[in-house]
Amino acid sequence: MTGDVKVWQLKAQGSAQQPARQIELAGHRLKAEPQGNKNYRLQISEGEGTTAATVTTEEMTLVGPDIYLDQQANRVWINGGGELMMNLVDANKNTLPPQATRKEKQNLKITWQGGMIFDGSQIYFERNVISHSITRGKENTQRHTSTESTILNIELDRYVSLRTPEAANQAAEPARRPEPKVKTLLLVDRLPEGQPVFQLAGFQQAIPTRPVLIASITRDAAGAIMEQQKLVAPTARIHVNDNRLTAEGPGALAIHRPNRNSDNATPLSFQRKAKTTAPYLFIQTNFDQALRVDTESKSLDMTGNVRALYIPVFSMDQSFSPDNPNPPADAFRLSCATLTMHQWTPQATGLQQSELRARGNARVSNS
After folding, report:
1. To pair with 15 at 20 to 30 A between CA atoms, which of 98, 175, 258, 290?
2. Are 311 and 273 in contact (CB under 8 A)?
3. Rounded CA gap, 350 and 346, in Å?
4. First to last CA, the chain
5. CA–CA separation, 114 and 203 (whole Å)
């Protein structure tokens, strides 16, 4: 079929209600091959000069030149570049229908150049993968998180079926299940040598290594940047359910945050110095082995030839490397084998406290 084609697969509903859409396909050209049990192998394609093909479910929207859906295998894939959007609104706080919510908030957006495949529980992306998500916090703050990698693999917390509902279930109204949530994200800086999933014209040459980048920017209600963090490493895994992040080295973690010590002390408060008016504090820590972050317990561990630099700065565009043999004035440098940080807030004062532990040939110096 050709010419502004739209196809809907309806969910099983009771006879007294209007059936809801489970899957929607839209594009210029549709090819359908029956597979039995009312399942199909579908290909929806864009037309020349027309809108790209789309596949929309309750959980996500896919956009690309050609999208393939195999209901029997419960797989959907794009061989080439495309775009995916997922709504990650907390189901317990969301009172709008999924379709209406998705139009208002596209909380996770992913683009890629090589290809993607979804099997109901995992979504795999290949080549120049970029993601962006927004998390809304207290007092109307927003945290913008973006990632860049060669490979991204997303694991969901529940299975999503793309198959046609069984005819035997058509008379019964199924209980509404919560929308799936992202469980883990695995980011890798390179393709397995000689083993790309998607063989594309123009990509036969070796793909250069692209370090994994995870960037997080917190903005206040007016949109001004309050804090920003950047992590660069070969491999990183984000555990969304329990707010943990792990990364393999060598890597670097850079942080810009308000300089709360600017009135009367140096960044680490080792000794008194002249007051500084720099509004921000820049911290970069390089590590050779591993990084472990647990935001629930507010702890961080780095291992393997850890080098850190602390310095007040006047702009969030300013950055410095702890490996520079000639650091700028007012910089503190810390080196050790293992660095651990904990944060807590005593009830008596209500002020956040931090503790750093540097172990293994620890050394502190300032310029």
Report:
1. 98
2. no
3. 6
4. 72
5. 8
SS3 assignment, position 117: strand
Please write the tens of the pLDDT for every residue from 244-255: 999 998 999 999
Helices (H), 105-145: none
What residue type is assigned to position 320 of the chain? F
pLDDT in tens, 109-143: 999 998 999 988 899 999 899 999 888 877 788 88
pTM metric for this prediction: 0.81
Phi-psi domain of 22 (left: phi exceeds 0; alpha: psi -120 through 50; beta: other) = alpha
Q: Are 254 and 227 in contact (CB under 8 A)?
A: no
Residue type, 28: H
- What is the rounded average pLDDT for all residues in the chain? 79
pLDDT reported for residue 101 = 37
Peptide bond just before 250 cis, omega within 30 deg = yes
Residue indicated by tokens 């647990």: 294
Q: Which residues pair with 301 in a beta bridge?
A: 292, 340
For 330, which DSSP code?
T
Query: CB within 8 A of 32, min separation 6: which ones?
Result: 1, 40, 41, 42, 43
